Q: What sequence folds into this?
């Protein structure tokens, strides 16, 4: 594990640990000044730990948990495991499988979403979740979920999507959303013609929001080299590096460091290749008018 004097990547694990420790400190009403004096470190050192600018030193984690009143052995093992692995970049959320407990708790993938300053999505197959109407989302969910708990899962899924969309559309100071869609996405009659028509109208409506940009990659446009599947890039607030997300049948992969930057560069290329936002909205209106009931 790198020392604080070596180059340290502000990984998702490091940021998550910093937030967990800061929340524990706040919950117990302890100031940075008090805790840093207790540890015998500089005030700025503890602040850098919490901001993930430096890795938490393992010999500091135990005393911190003592002063924060964390005595449960399972909780202590998890946070110590997270500190020991804070340097690890990339997280694989495997479907139906629990993460390795030795690496500490893994932040929910939506935790990254909530921290992002800008969300960039390239989708060549379906309308992305944050832009979906309820009927469109329900059809996709129904096609991919089975079992007796499906209705309960759908209610939770619907609520989560609604809240995350509101966080963007109802807050001009919140995260911005930039989406590039393949034209074929707008032609797939998911849920039938009426559902598709309402979905296209929803895209037109969302395109009016100042912090939402929608671009269309038309069928006659050549796909930039190397881009073969959809992805999401989270542009994080400074000084944190971007994070890329890839969804697949086995789960979700979060990519950090240089790998994430490659996806960020790829998205920039897509935005230069796709139709401008105003022309894209015009194309959506044309395709909506062509739908046959």
A:
């Amino acid at each position: 594990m790198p020392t604080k004097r070596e180059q340290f990547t502000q990984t998702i694990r490091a940021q998550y640990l910093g937030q967990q420790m800061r929340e524990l400190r706040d919950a117990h009403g302890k100031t940075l000044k008090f805790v840093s004096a207790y540890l015998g470190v500089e005030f700025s050192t503890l602040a850098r730990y919490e901001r993930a600018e430096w890795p938490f030193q393992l010999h500091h984690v135990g005393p911190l948990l003592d002063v924060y009143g964390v005595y449960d052995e399972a909780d202590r093992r998890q946070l110590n495991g997270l500190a020991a692995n804070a340097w690890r970049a990339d997280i694989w959320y495997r479907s139906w499988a629990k993460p390795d407990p030795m690496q500490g708790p893994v932040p929910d993938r939506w935790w990254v979403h909530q921290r992002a300053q800008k969300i960039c999505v390239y989708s060549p197959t379906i309308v992305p979740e944050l832009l979906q109407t309820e009927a469109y989302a329900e059809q996709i969910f129904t096609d991919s979920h089975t079992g007796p708990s499906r209705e309960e899962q759908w209610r939770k899924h619907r609520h989560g999507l609604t809240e995350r969309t509101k966080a963007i559309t109802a807050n001009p100071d919140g995260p911005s959303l930039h989406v590039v869609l393949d034209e074929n996405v707008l032609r797939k009659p998911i849920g039938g013609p009426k559902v598709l028509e309402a979905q296209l109208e929803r895209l037109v409506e969302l395109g009016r929001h100042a912090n939402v940009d929608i671009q269309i990659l038309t069928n006659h446009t050549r796909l930039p080299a190397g881009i073969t599947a959809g992805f999401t890039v989270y542009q994080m607030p400074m000084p944190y590096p971007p994070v890329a997300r890839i969804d697949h049948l086995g789960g979700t992969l979060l990519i950090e460091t240089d790998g994430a930057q490659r996806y960020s560069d790829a998205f920039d290329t897509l935005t230069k290749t796709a139709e401008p936002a105003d022309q894209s909205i015009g194309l959506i209106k044309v395709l909506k008018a062509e739908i046959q009931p």
